[in-house]
Each structure stands twice: as C-alpha cells, then as structure tokens.
Amino acid sequence: MDKIVIEGGSSLRGKVLISGAKNAALPLICATILAPGKNILTNVPRLGDVRTVLKLLAIIGAEVDLEWPRVVVDTSELDNPVAPYELVKTMRAAILVLGPLVARYGHAKVSLPGGCAIGARPINLHLKALEAMGATIEIKRGYVEVTCDRLRGARIDFPVATVGGTENVMMAASLALGVTHIHNAAREPEIEDLANMLNAMGAKVEGAGTSTIVITGVDSLHAVEHRVIPDRIEAGTFMIGAALNQGEVELQGVNPSHLTSVIDHLRRAGVTIETRTDSILVRGPSKITPFEIVTEPHPGFPTDMQAQFMVLALAAHGKSIITESIFENRFMHVPELVRMGAQIDVQSRAAHLLGPAFLEGTTVMATDLRASASLILAGLIAEGTTQVLRVYHLDRGYENIVDKLQGLGARISRVPSELF
Ligand code: EPU
Asked: b/e per residue, 67-95, with b = 16+ CB within 10 A?
C-alpha cells in the first residue's frame, strides 16, 4: 500500500482547481438507472468511490464508458438488479441503487452494508420509507430484498435528516404512482443537484434544498447530460490548508454559496476570505483565533469538515471545542493527532483542543476519508516528516490531492509501496 510523505512548515500559495463532488456524483450515477439510454455526466471526479459505483452499474447491466471527467452510462438494458456484498462493503453509498432499481424493475436485492468506521450508520429509514411507498422488504442472508409492482406516493417523515435516505426516496418517488411528500428532508447542495438532474430527465421534484420536498411521480424518464457540482468538502479542506502557516490560495471552480457555514467559521477564526462567483481567495492570519463548532445537517457546519477544522484548532492560540452531533464515532483522527503531540480531551461527543500545539511528524494512519485528510493537514504544520498510511481512504474521496498540494508548494509526495 502506498504512503504519503509530508515535510512540515511550508505555506500553501497559488491556485487550485476543485473537482466535481463525490457525494453528488454517487447519487447522480445511481439515478441513471431510472432513465433508459445514454446518460452523460461531466465534471465527474476520478475517485475510488466513483469507480466502485460505476462497477456496480456495470454489474447491474449498464454500459459504462470512462472519458474522465466525462462518464457515459448507458442504462438501456439492465438485467441484474443486484448489489453484491463485495462492492457494498467497500462503499455504503451503494445503497443508493435501492430506490431506483425498485422503481424501474419492481425488484432489488442489495447487500446490507455492515459496519462502518464512523458510526453504526443504519439504513432503517431508507427501508421504512420504501415500505410506506408500498414495497415489501425482506432481509435474507445479509441481503435486503425489496419488491413492489409499482411504488405509490406517500408521506415520509424523517425523524433525522438523512442525505442518502432523502436521495433514495426522491429517486424512487420519481417513477411512483402519485405524489410523495418528504418532511424533514436533507437540504445539502447534493440533494439539489440530484433534483436538477431528475427534473431534466422529466421528473417533477419541487422544494429540493428546503426541508419539504414534493415529488409527483411520472411514467417514464429519459436520459440526459448533466454537470456534477463542485466538491464543497474538497474545497473546504484546501481552505484549511491555506489558512495554516499564513498561506494564500485561490480556489477555482467552486460554488461559495455551498460553503457558507465553513466560510463563517473560518472568518471567525481570523482567516481572510474573498468570494467571487466561482472562486474563493483564502488568506491565513498570523494568529488563528480559537473557536467552537457543532456539526449539523446542512446548512449547519458539515460533519465532513470536522476533522480538518481540528487541525485549524490545533494551530489556534487558545482553547477550541468541536462537537460531533451527526455520527457517534467520528473522532478516529484524535489518537493519531495526539501521537503527533496534540492536546485533545474528548468528553462524550465534544473534543476540547488546546493550541498552538507543537506537532512533530511521525507515522500515522486513519480509518476514514476525512480523518486521513486531517492528518495531511497536520503534516503541513508539524515539524519534520509525517508519513500517512492507508492512502486508499484518500483515493476514495480526494482527486489528485498530492499533485494539487504540490502545485501549491507543499513538500509532499506519494511513495509507491514497492519502494518501501
Ligand atoms: N441514519 C439513520 N438511519 C438511516 C439513515 C441515516 O439513523 O436509515 C442516521 C445516520 O446514522 C446519521 C444520520 O442519520 O447519524 C445522518 O446520516 P445520513 O444518512 O445523512 O448520511 P449518509 O447519507 O450515509 C452522507 C455522505 C457522508 C456525510 C453524511 C452527513 C454521501 C455518499 N455520504 O452520508 O459523507 O458524512 O451524508 O452529511 O453522500 C464523506 O464524504 O466522507 C461522508 C461520510
């Protein structure tokens, strides 16, 4: 397995182009199941998770043509509505084929995802919603089998705003008989992107981006061309990188309106931010102000930026508190940061951090994507050499992160496994 090696101390300077959003691309690819024909997606990030979902579409029977960042998914003839364990275990988002498969075929068999590094992450709300729409659900030998001749519109009240649950219902309801109301729907920009693509396919989805989404089912959908929105979490990660060590970075190809909460919190920490239509200029201060953050569903502060903000807190002058309210076990980066010299005290779901920390480079690894990104950021402010193992987590969600950081002046390289 490759590793990433970082020499600490350099500040990031220059321009970086942000890729398409992983968490938008995954549901958009699943939505192509609903619309027979050649669907064309552009601005698709070349990532491990995107390859996994495309592999899944190929197993289901789609013809997939990769011309990164353009991907063609021909869903004219699908013949195998099954998502096998081998794929689902590596990427939970594979559950997003459930809604579209049942809607188009009346049947789907998808492996239960099993354990996850950041929390239990059940799919009960996805299943309950499909049941409310008339589907029969059976759990057999680790697989969930969902059957329904034609789904019916229903009222879905989510007790917690679930991104994947909202997406699954939006896709399923697009081909259902009648009207579906989703209450307490997730409001993430990726939900709006999915609604825009579904509507271009001929669906009738209203209210995406608010907490009530109304979907009027139609009889059929048609293939489309659609551009994936920019990755707000990749953008946020580079913004933290720029804020450390008094860097100055212009992010290009971004949508600042997707990053309101992240921008607010960075400004409160003393970071200078200038936004334009599709770019953001970030200038790191000489002294970072400590802060308090609680993760929340969008438009609140995103859990996917929590680990990266911890590194900003370690560089700040004083005590910061970061509370994780979405997932119950999303502090795996803490013991690794502590090994680098950080002072972090976790009390239940709140991490108390004391800065400025004197971090020393060492060998670290993390068990999820955003935690791995935080270790790279920590490597930028640590003294000496930091080696980040388990690089495959980063490959799942950050396109060319090493090249992009090198382009900004970071002393970082990827060492192939045969060399060590
Ligand atoms: N939940 C349930 N039951 C369900 C579904 C969710 O209890 O049936 C709970 C979860 O356990 C969690 C909360 O609801 O406590 C929110 O989970 P959600 O369903 O919103 O998360 P998700 O759809 O599985 C997506 C992103 C995650 C991101 C979360 C929260 C994708 C592919 N994944 O996951 O992204 O952290 O929303 O914003 O969109 C990442 O990119 O690193 C990542 C983990």
From this structure: eebebbbbbeebeebbbebebbbebbbbb
